Amino acid sequence: PCALIVSASNGKIINIEGDPDHPINQGSLCSKGEALIQVANNERRLTTVKYRAPNSDHWEEKSWDWALPEIAKRIKKTRDENWISKDKKGSVVNRVEALAGLGGAALDNEECYLWSKLARALGIVYLEHQARI
After folding, report:
1. Strand pairing partners for 17?
2. Of 12, 38, 119, 131, which cross-links 101 as Cys (Cβ 3.0–4.6 Å)?
3. Can you give the residue ranges of the 4Fe-4S Mo/W bis-MGD-type domain (predicted)?
């Protein structure tokens, strides 16, 4: 993991640089670190929950207090309805094929590790990452 020194003014990031005292990156930044300022300061970056109901033609703004329990409820429902204990040969597999996970370059190694642990705990067997492409 890289260490960053981030400077902000008026609530906006104005500079990101590598921490020269960090033993891993020693002041350097990879391409992800270099691009972080663009991610943080992008005017098109969503900062609220957007939800489009089935058959709707527009997005609604929702609260995190609504979204997180809703996501959990839907994941649990899908997992419970599609759980596979054994395959056709009778081998124990304990998995769900109706859920999948996708990682991206914005995630660091630790976040990818945690995401994969969560996915495996849910029984997800199909994990992809854009680095493979």
Report:
1. 5
2. 119
3. 1-44
